[in-house]
Amino acid sequence: MSAPASIDEFRIRLAEVTDTLPKRLRQCAEFIAANTDRIAVSTVAELAVGADVPPSALMRFCQILGFSGFTEMQRLFREAYSPGWPDYGTRLKNLKENGAGSPAALLAEFVEAGRLSLEQLAKSADEAALSQAAAQLAGAETLHVIGLRRAYPVASYLTYVFEKMQVPAMLHDGVGKLDHRHALRKGDACVAITFAPYSDETLALAADAQARGLPVIGITDRLTSPLARLSATVLTVPEVDFGAFRSLSATLALSIALAVAVGTAREG
Amino acid sequence: MSAPASIDEFRIRLAEVTDTLPKRLRQCAEFIAANTDRIAVSTVAELAVGADVPPSALMRFCQILGFSGFTEMQRLFREAYSPGWPDYGTRLKNLKENGAGSPAALLAEFVEAGRLSLEQLAKSADEAALSQAAAQLAGAETLHVIGLRRAYPVASYLTYVFEKMQVPAMLHDGVGKLDHRHALRKGDACVAITFAPYSDETLALAADAQARGLPVIGITDRLTSPLARLSATVLTVPEVDFGAFRSLSATLALSIALAVAVGTAREG
DNA sequence: GACGCTATGGAATAAAAATTCCAAAACAGG
DNA sequence: CCTGTTTTGGAATTTTTATTCCATAGCGTC
Question: What is the mean pLDDT of residues A143-163?
Fold first, then answer.
């Protein structure tokens, strides 16, 4: 079997071979697949540490791929190497100027929007409100999560994370227009997520929860949102829109942080 | 004189020093200035040949710049090559050791993880595959989207965006274990999203679509994923995990870009 | 043209890296 | 539970690479 002559060939060979490999060699394959870009600038020993295998396993892995050894594999990547760091700002600008509307240009836009959102979130986050929200949720029994339309991905992920952390959580997803509002019980708490244009169903559930005396944590876009009036604690997320769509990066980051904080607090 | 601590500092030092150097050392300086990007992936001998000087001259040159030797200079460039990963690991460890667990600290971590993911996505995205995927989806009738567990938020948002752009799309969400595989019709296409540990249902639907001859667009974490074999086009996303959870920022950015590209292509 | 200084090339050495090999462990099949 | 096979880890070895050192060449000055 001969050595891959290009990085594409390398990738194909890697994909072909991975399934057939035993444990340690598969670790190599997976680490290499996830860190292909570091091959050019690393030593066998460094990569072995990263993959958590002995160096000899990595050598075997190179040979299975068809190379005579690590050196030959590395040569492939060193020759193809062209660093990203003349910087990605220019690259982004190029994209915008040239192929506007091309999928790659769109991707650059959404990446940029996401980065901005995250940056703003880091700057503007209300840490006190976040802690308070975490405390309220940690003290509750079942958590009810609602978020529809574009907030739905956030609500579903939040529920997923709660479940993974063994926090009892219920996603109010409106499937079949079934209304689970009577599942709201004393001692529970509610997380409601909605952005302009605010979803009536979400506001209705939040209002219901509030009426029953449950603490409502609102995740929304601004303090003047109708959700704010219904919430015990409001978390605002400065999401940057691109076109009609928001990246949700910041909203998700905030939500997961909240969920993990709650999960850890309840374990302790 | 101490070693430059960043590539900017390196450039400044190099510019300062070049004029004062004798012939051979100036050759080094000029060659290095013109081939800064090769430092990370070359040996002393190779660079010396390129600059047309003996290796010892290059060594002296490194020392004049303030480094202890070539190795130290090279390290600067090897590390700068992918600044994201090396210190992410340490940061995470620091967090665990220090005041970890506070909601604000968690938030900072997820913001950082998201930012890194987006950065890597911008660098590593396979633009050809993205265009190809967009073209395949634009040419299809109904789009079938599947993604379960932690990929579910992505799948649901993708479907939302498709709907908003008036692209007929169907979300296979597994509600009630109802299986909608027979909704896959000739002329349709399928978007499947799954990350390790890969969801059987997602793979099954992708396989089914492939068997019926529909183009499958796979969104997954690595090229060696089982989804790759079932897909006409594979898009990989280098998501940075924090603890057991991924930020999804990069995955979402990629997905929305894809959806918007498809939407615009179909309008035209 | 001789003297002192700096610059240079190359050979010698030290350090680090890659690669091989073998004994032990894990594993599958009978 | 034993037996033959595959997989594994690590130590030994080889190769490559970086680094040092010194003799010599060049060059300006007196």
Answer: 95
Over residues B18-24, the mean pLDDT reads 85
**Dihedral angle over CA of A57, A19, B214, A150, nearest 10:** -70
> What are the pLDDT digits (tens) for A216-230?
999 999 888 999 999
Closest residue by Cα to residue A155 from B152, B211, B199, B209: B152
**Which residues make Cβ contacts (< 8 Å) with residue A47, sequence separation at least 6?**
A31, A32, A35, A38, A39, A58
Of residues A151, A148, A155, A122, the one with CA closest to residue A221: A151
Give the nearest chain A residue to B250 (CA atoms). Answer: A111
Q: Residue written as tokens 């890194």? A: B116
Query: Can you give the pLDDT at residue A85?
Result: 47
pTM (2 d.p.): 0.69
Mutate to test the interface with B, among A8, A252, A267 (most CBs of B within 10 A): A252
* Residue B14: how many other CB atoms lie within 10 Å: 17
User: Cα–Cα distances in Å, from A232 out to A132, A135, A183, A200, A239?
Assistant: 9, 12, 20, 19, 22
